[in-house]
Amino acid sequence: MPHSPAVEVRGLVKRYDGRAVVDGLDLTASAGQVTAVLGPNGAGKTTTVECCEGLRAPDGGTVRVLGLDPVADAAALRPAVGVMLQDGGLPTGVRAREMLDHVARMYSRPLDTDTLAERLGLDAFARTTVRRLSGGQRQRLALAVAVVGRPRVVFLDEPSAGMDPQSRLAVWELVRELRDGGAAVILTTHLMEEAEDVADHVVVVDHGTVLARGSVPELLAAGVEPGSTATLVVHTASDVDPTGLRERLGERFVVERRSGTSLTVTGAVVPATVATTAAWLAERDVLVTRLDLGRRTLEDVFLDLTGRSLR
Ligand code: ADP
After folding, report:
1. What is the DSSP letter of 160?
2. Is 45 in the pocket of ligand 1 (CB under 6 A)?
3. Could you tell me the CATH superfamily of domain 225-295?
4. 19, 21, 48, 311: which to mutate for ligand 1, most atoms within 8 A of CB?
């Protein structure tokens, strides 16, 4: 069977007041995969997905969802596309559970709303109006509404914003199930841990264009060379204030205190960095109990690509 991408964005341009906030962006998302659009705030992630959702018309380039134009073919796409907007986008006067049941009735083959409500913990606030929900509760309801119609394509904009860790896990479990059921899931996030955890495919975006794309292992392996960012984790037997170490290593390194007895050095860590750190600690009679070179993360990849931190 020919395999066309669920979402295909080519050379997308979107301008606000003459300024291109999306500037020639390419994006492909496939069925049965979670695609994460990762980038700092203001990178153009929301604008990009809003163009895919048909909420904004591009100023240039093309957007195809399931082979259709999200603006011109909005009616045809509606039953097949689930959308979770950043602010929830839900009517504020409706009770949570009524909202979900109402939306479910609009689809021919909806998910069982009792099960969905239980999984996302909606029962705890079933009779509360949307207006009075907390940010995290509103997010969970918005997710339920986005997926209840068994969409083939799901857009989730910063889905875990404001959620507690337990809800976040429930959300990721649901996202994985949707993917395993063959849906194309496209999520935006500025949290690299989130992208690392759930994404099959990551598109790193900054200033409205794509800096890098690939699977998480591909991105982590790409471009590792002397000078790439790494993190040195030092565990000590006693408390240590790393202020002086910052001065010793210079401004190319970020020295952070993790707890009283551990600190991290992030930057282009080489053996000399380790030696300097160890010598500085020895001068202070601090016993080093463990030295680890931390795992490379997508944060390090972003730092190497842009010279800036993602947060
Ligand atoms: P992200 O989702 O990556 O944080 P956005 O797509 O929300 O980025 O925003 C990209 C840029 O576009 C930001 O500088 C933002 O201020 C600007 N922007 C977004 N929406 C509008 C709008 N409706 N009018 C003017 N500028 C906007």
Report:
1. T
2. yes
3. Alpha-L RNA-binding motif (3.30.70.1560)
4. 21
Q: Is 208 touching ligand 1 by the criterion CB < 6 Å? A: no
Higher model confidence: residue 171 or residue 59? 59
Which CATH homologous superfamily contains domain 7-215? P-loop containing nucleotide triphosphate hydrolases (3.40.50.300)
* Predicted confidence (pLDDT) at residue 8 exceeds the cutoff of 80: yes
- The token pair that represents 151 in the structure block: 């969409």
Ligand 1 atom nearest 40 alpha carbon:
3
Whether ligand 1 lies within 6 angstroms of the CB of 87 is answered as: no
- DSSP one-letter code for 163: -
15 within 8 A of 59, measured Cβ to Cβ: yes
Which among 37, 45, 46, 186 is the best mutation to test ligand 1's pocket, defined by most ligand atoms within 8 Å of the CB?
A: 46
CB atoms within 10 A of CB 281: 19
State how far the Cα of 301 lies from the Cα of 34, in Å rounded to an integer.
Answer: 20
Ligand 1: does its nearest atom lie under 6 Å from the Cβ of 44? yes
CATH 3.40.50.300, the chain: domain bounds: 7-215
How far from 304 is each of 9, 25, 308, CA to CA, in Å?
Answer: 26, 20, 8
pTM, 2 dp: 0.83
Say what the pLDDT of residue 140 is. 93
pLDDT in tens, 179-238: 999 999 999 998 888 888 899 999 999 999 999 999 999 998 876 676 778 889 999 999
Location of each CATH 3.30.70.1560 domain in the chain: 225-295
Cα–ligand 1 centroid distance for 21 (angstroms): 7
How many angstroms is it from 42 CA to the middle of ligand 1? 6
Q: How confident is the model at residue 60 (pLDDT cuts 50, 70, 90)?
A: very high
